[in-house]
DNA sequence: CGCCCTTACGCAAGCGCTTGCGTTAACTCA
DNA sequence: TGAGTTAACGCAAGCGCTTGCGTAAGGGCG
């Protein structure tokens, strides 16, 4: 591979001049500029990023840490993020963490070892304190899908309370009063926030939400099935299910149908996330849209801004709003 | 961040010694070794990958180029690949190419600029000649999902002919004789290979495959619907559909059902790829398994072997086999 | 016309690491 | 015991780039 030296020799200038032409900083005559550019084209020169990084202590890399890139939700993060990154001439690093703190830490370390300061973290396992500490250490760290007050300007998140509320309100508006919630058993905040949102909707409607209407599970398709069975076997009556995510919702639908119930005629189901398969399944899933792709791309922009223009104005809060996507898994109950 | 120098100072040795202890090459007393290791721990030292790369001209990065990382199929490549890469202490770069030659080239260039020699390419747009040229230039380039004779040992691929044949044979074995093929209109070889495989099965069964039984489309869900409409409107009779991929298959199922046909009672459908949503949709999709995750991880191993041990023995061919996954979208036809 | 300021470029140090070679001291063995 | 080995480490160059500083040439101005 040709080096800056080679280009300099060809253009009959010093390496510093080539470097300046390349970066557009500094002054030079248009004559020199064209000489350099010609040499670059002629030699098919491509700067060595490692040398650049070493010399300038700057790196054009954004790293994504998500539980598992092959899950549809996280795939969108990587995809939306990559597009935004590429638009800024940044390259994209990824790491699967499998919700494991050690893996997450290891990923961060290795990204840092690359000189990568732009890290988008969708963490399930760090505590708020850990995140704050990390954010203070890493200028370009952006937390996706979570809100931590002390580093609010570094968090790109969804209003989960609102989302839960919207979902519940939608069911209530469709005449449902006996609603079961299939939630996700984890310490992180999303599930409880969505439940809280639902509680608000219930309270507003003068309804109450008995504790045994909430089933916690592991958030996968099979867990949706499992939860429905548990619900059905408990003898509890319900006309609608509010699921923590689309996976649970789909599992619930399948199990419901398997056990002879019709969806939505007998039981309505609403999901969360609006993953692409929501319109594949039968019935097509009514769900709450989580604009994760946009959020990922926003997070990248934010991270780059944070590192490239540390003094630039940054919104204090980066909050995204969920929205209802009506399809066919919720039935209007006539009184 | 602490540097090698800092570690050396703390351990009272030269930087070369630290470097040697780190890499395990060269000789040193265990006493020196522990001194160095203690210093490393004490300072929480992490080598600067850019400096390492620059000095050694070696880099622990594997780059994946796929059309779009958020598509389920390609997500599996990144995920399986990342896991294999991490096992070798390699980091993972990704790039979306959107089936665009320029983007693919650009991605390769930028990976190379990082010093990354391990590239896994799932290319839709390069010609065989281009791939050969690239493979000759880049030691660690591995082609995924395609076979090019001249660089056979660099191709990790699926027996698509066999896959098409298996799918057709499965339908035939279930009594179907009027089979429509919903294929993918692209210059690349997969679709035609699968059709060829189907032809073999037809020929073996003494059946023939009229040209107007094959509909070409763009390979997405909507295209499955579109193709079914085209088929239905042409008045052609068929009892089964053999789809190029699961997306088309799902779209076909949906449209069939929409137009009043029952799947599989009226029309059977078989897909290809065995993506995770195949068991979500209704009916659950019978399909051909494409072990892409395993292939991706294999490709990474191969690439690393190619660059780290250029003289090691490498299988001449890396061929994976598809297999039928029986679910409920194909009905046995009684004579 | 001499002075100063700017413009346009070159010089060279240095980013943090690897590695070939050199050096020292300990060790082997006839 | 002295020549030759070898083990264990240090020296320093150099990977390809950036960038602060220096400087020569050109231009403006009184």
Automatic annotation (TrEMBL), chains A, B:
<keyword id="KW-0238">DNA-binding</keyword>
<keyword id="KW-0804">Transcription</keyword>
<feature type="domain" description="HTH lacI-type">
    <location>
        <begin position="2"/>
        <end position="56"/>
    </location>
</feature>
<dbReference type="GO" id="GO:0000976">
    <property type="term" value="F:transcription cis-regulatory region binding"/>
</dbReference>
<dbReference type="InterPro" id="IPR046335">
    <property type="entry name" value="LacI/GalR-like_sensor"/>
</dbReference>
<keyword id="KW-0805">Transcription regulation</keyword>
<dbReference type="InterPro" id="IPR028082">
    <property type="entry name" value="Peripla_BP_I"/>
</dbReference>
<protein>
    <submittedName>
        <fullName>LacI family transcriptional regulator</fullName>
    </submittedName>
</protein>
<dbReference type="InterPro" id="IPR000843">
    <property type="entry name" value="HTH_LacI"/>
</dbReference>
<dbReference type="InterPro" id="IPR010982">
    <property type="entry name" value="Lambda_DNA-bd_dom_sf"/>
</dbReference>
<dbReference type="Pfam" id="PF00356">
    <property type="entry name" value="LacI"/>
</dbReference>
<dbReference type="GO" id="GO:0003700">
    <property type="term" value="F:DNA-binding transcription factor activity"/>
</dbReference>
<dbReference type="Pfam" id="PF13377">
    <property type="entry name" value="Peripla_BP_3"/>
</dbReference>
